[in-house]
């Protein structure tokens, strides 16, 4: 049991998730909408926490209904005394989690997932394909997560290779670094969706270039190259966290090391 506590302490030490488990222990099977009303928090936050708890085997979800598992009940009974805190501390913790949800764009990711995995996959493919076409027409190439202007130093098709590498590294992180095994269409659609912010770069630059002078444009270009890959990393970290049940911080750390850092190093060496 001590191993279970070590594995799930990062989940149970989140006041909102503890509150969800306590409510389910008292109420039994509940509708997610009713649970959201009790907690008085955005639906996206509830769905995010439910997916984390479900991935760790602490609750079961059946459509709009959820209930706590015997594993979740046993774990809560074991650590309930250790996790008791004052109401003031819980309120501070809740506000902190809500702010974290906004900064990490979890509501955006959860709302996209509510479209359904198949629809999300289709939308992602369409937008990524559009980004590929525009990048080709405007002579942009993608180094993993950094777009650069075309150059003889880059082999043809580096953008497609970078996208495949991105997907492969994401699956590697999910399977071997986060220790999860189930790879389904929901995971794949989420990985492709996380690429959308980065793939919007060629479109944005193409649209604004005729209207903005060179000097402000260079600043905007630098900001987009920094912020859009970061948005992709954050969305991907949320997707991997939801699917694996592991803390988002792990995913974001691995992604930064394996995706963003090599991209920036190559970009600096070749073009600066």
Low-confidence stretches at least 5 residues in length (pLDDT < 50)?
Answer: 1-6, 85-90
Q: How much of the polypeptide forms β-strand, as a percent range?
A: 5-15%
What is the arithmetic mean of pLDDT?
83
* Helix content bin: over 70%
Determine the structural class based on helices, strands and strand pairing. mainly alpha
Give the overall form: elongated
Q: If helices are DSSP runs of H or I spanning 4 or more residues, what is the number of helices?
A: 14
Largest sheet, order of strands side by side?
1-3-2
The overall strand count is: 5
Compute the CA-based radius of gyration. 21 Å
How many domains is the backbone divided into? 2
Would you give an account of this structure?
- The chain has helices spanning 2-12, 15-27, 32-39, 43-55, 70-83, 87-103, 106-113, 117-137, 158-177, 185-194, 196-199, 201-208, 214-244, 248-271; strands at 30-31, 59-62, 65-68, 140-143, 146-149.
- 74% of the residues lie in helices and 7% in strands.
- β4 (140-143) and β5 form a beta hairpin.
- Strands 1-3-2 form a three-stranded antiparallel beta sheet. It has a two-stranded antiparallel ribbon with strand order 4-5.
- The chain has two domains: 2-103, Winged helix-like DNA-binding domain superfamily/Winged helix DNA-binding domain (Arc Repressor Mutant, subunit A); 108-271, no CATH class.
- It is elongated and about 60 Å long.
- It has 272 residues and is mainly alpha-helical.
What are the key terms here?
single chain, 272 residues, mainly alpha, Arc Repressor Mutant, subunit A, 2 domains, three-stranded antiparallel β-sheet, two-stranded antiparallel sheet, 14 helices, 74% helix, elongated
């Amino acid at each position: 049991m001590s191993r279970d506590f070590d594995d799930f302490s990062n989940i149970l030490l989140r006041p909102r998730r503890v509150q969800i488990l306590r409510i389910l222990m008292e109420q039994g099977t509940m509708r997610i909408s009713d649970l959201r009303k009790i907690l008085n928090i955005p639906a996206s936050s509830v769905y995010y926490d439910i997916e984390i708890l479900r991935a760790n085997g602490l609750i079961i979800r059946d459509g709009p209904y959820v209930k706590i598992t015997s594993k979740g009940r046993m774990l809560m009974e074991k650590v309930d005394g250790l996790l008791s805190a004052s109401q003031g501390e819980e309120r501070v913790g809740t506000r902190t989690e809500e702010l974290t949800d906004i900064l990490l764009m979890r509501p955006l990711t959860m709302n996209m997932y509510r479209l359904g995995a198949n629809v999300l996959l289709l939308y992602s493919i369409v937008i990524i394909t559009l980004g590929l076409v525009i990048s080709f027409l405007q002579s942009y190439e993608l180094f993993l997560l950094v777009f650069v202007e075309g150059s003889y130093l880059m082999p043809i098709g580096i953008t497609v290779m970078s996208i495949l590498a991105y997907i492969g590294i994401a699956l590697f992180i999910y399977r071997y670094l986060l220790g999860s095994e189930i790879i389904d269409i929901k995971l794949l659609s989420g990985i492709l969706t996380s690429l959308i912010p980065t793939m919007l770069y060629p479109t944005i630059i193409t649209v604004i270039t005729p209207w903005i002078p060179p000097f402000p444009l260079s600043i905007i270009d630098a900001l987009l190259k920094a912020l859009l890959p970061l948005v992709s990393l954050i969305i991907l970290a949320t997707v991997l966290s939801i699917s694996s049940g592991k803390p988002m911080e792990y995913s974001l750390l691995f992604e930064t090391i394996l995706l963003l850092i090599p991209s920036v190093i190559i970009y600096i060496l070749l073009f600066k």
